[in-house]
TrEMBL record:
The keyword Signal applies. Keywords: Signal. The keyword Signal applies. Residues 1-25 form the signal peptide. It comes from Gordonia neofelifaecis NRRL B-59395. It comes from the Bacteria. This is Secreted protein.
């Protein structure tokens, strides 16, 4: 087990203990109203193209996420009318301190229809890029890309976290640089399920390893619940 994975395991167990003891129960209520009001989980943009075609772009994230958990940004690229462009690449710029993500792309294929595929991710400036010879887009089938990141170990519950924008390349004018297409979420204390999920991918995929994670977290939670009932 790596030092990073071990650290996440210890922190996950600690967080679960706080949840079970009730110490974290007030976390959602203590987030400042000003933070919530200024933290928009989604943004959208459009771009006009020749022949009356409009391309649309959006980026979204869940409104809250457990500190140290995984966070997924959903990017959609659509079009209206004729044109049917192909998207060649999508670059996501995450919040500062976020490392390399995993990514999936959902797109329409002439052979096989709509498919979701796990795709490789490469560094691209301050962001992370997925690329293809061309993901097809039409008015009924936008391209959807999801980038999933591990939140940094420095994450603190109760704070807003804002991402950067996106960059798209492709045909028929669909390419765009949108640095203001951002998404913001509010951090909170992790749930036990998030605690397990946040470290599962960092460790071996064997059943025994996942059992260890579950036992550690469940054991801490059960112990505190027993103490609370005595």
């Amino acid at each position: 087990m790596s030092r990073s994975a071990a650290t996440r395991l210890v922190l996950a167990a600690t967080v679960s203990a706080l949840i079970a003891s009730g110490a974290a129960a007030v976390a959602p209520q203590t987030i400042g109203a000003a933070n919530a009001a200024s933290c928009d989980p989604a943004s959208r943009a459009t771009k006009s193209a020749p022949a009356g075609v409009t391309h649309s772009y959006s980026k979204a994230v869940k409104e809250t996420a457990g500190a140290l958990a995984k966070v997924t940004y959903q990017i959609d690229i659509g079009t209206s009318g004729i044109g049917n462009p192909y998207v060649h690449s999508i670059t996501d710029t995450p919040p500062s301190g976020f490392g390399k993500p995993t990514a999936k792309v959902t797109a329409f294929h002439l052979a096989g229809g709509l498919k979701e595929e796990t795709v490789p991710v490469v560094a691209d400036g301050t962001g992370w890029k997925v690329a293809n010879s061309g993901w097809f887009v039409n008015s009924s089938n936008p391209v959807k890309a999801s980038f999933t990141y591990d939140m940094p170990l420095s994450s603190i519950p109760g704070l807003p976290v804002t991402s950067g924008g996106i960059t798209v390349t492709g045909t028929v004018g669909v390419g765009a640089s949108l640095p203001d297409l951002k998404a913001c979420f509010l951090t909170r204390v992790m749930t036990p399920g998030e605690a397990i999920g946040s470290i599962g991918d960092d460790l071996s995929s064997s059943g025994s390893t996942h059992s260890i994670i579950s036992d550690v977290v469940s054991g801490v939670v059960s112990g505190i619940l027993s103490g609370a009932g005595s």
